[in-house]
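Practice problem 4.
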């Protein structure tokens, strides 16, 4: 662990990744272990073992035994000889990441009270944490409860990303605005606000041909959706 820096760097906004002292930590191949890590990382309090069993196992022979195995694999990723981060007290499980950096938690905390008070520098820093959607590329079969949680998290963090990009686009005056607007358009292609802001930006920067192309593409796109 680096003195003065986070003990672990956990990336959830994109493909799951963990870093320690600037080096990537090898993740277990088990999808259940990875799912457990993501769920516990965002859990606001300790989670009952029974809840985790229902979340991740479709009536296996020994769900608690499988959970114990997954927790042992998780410990091999996040624990160190002098620090145990997987906490099991009574019948609950928690993941202690208090001295770690978790990108999703950073975004959630920073935007909890709204994004209006945030400086442009802070907005850019938060937007840069998004290297993809929440837990990108991860799917797990026959686990409807976990999949429902994953879908909800992706929706929430996508909404936060859009809000950050919209706010940034409203504060930028140079060519940087187009990067924010294009990313916003990618996330929400049918949001009229981003189309209006893009057209205004093209006109302000005398990029009229691109504005005409956007208008045509938007018209065709809406026509196809409406049938």
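Answer key:
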């Amino acid at each position: 662990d680096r003195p003065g820096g986070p003990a672990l760097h956990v990336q959830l906004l994109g493909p799951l990744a963990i870093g320690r002292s600037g080096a990537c930590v090898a993740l277990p191949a088990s999808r259940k272990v990875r799912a457990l890590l993501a769920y516990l990382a965002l859990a606001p309090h300790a989670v009952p073992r029974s809840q985790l069993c229902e979340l991740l196992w479709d009536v296996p022979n020994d769900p608690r035994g499988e959970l114990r195995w997954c927790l042992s694999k998780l410990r091999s990723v996040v624990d160190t000889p002098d620090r145990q981060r997987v906490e099991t007290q009574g019948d609950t499980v928690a993941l202690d990441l208090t001295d770690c950096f978790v990108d999703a938690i950073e975004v959630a905390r920073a935007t909890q009270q709204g994004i209006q008070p945030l400086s442009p520098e802070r907005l850019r820093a938060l937007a840069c944490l998004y290297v993809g959607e929440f837990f990108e590329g991860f799917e797990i079969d026959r686990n409807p409860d976990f999949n429902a949680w994953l879908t909800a998290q992706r929706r929430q963090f996508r909404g936060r990303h859009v809000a950050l990009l919209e706010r940034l686009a409203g504060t930028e005056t140079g060519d940087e605005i187009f990067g924010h607007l294009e990313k916003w358009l990618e996330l929400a292609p049918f949001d009229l606000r981003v189309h209006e802001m893009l057209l205004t930006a093209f006109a302000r920067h005398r990029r009229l041909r691109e504005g005409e192309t956007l208008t045509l593409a938007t018209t065709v796109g809406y026509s196809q959706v409406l049938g």
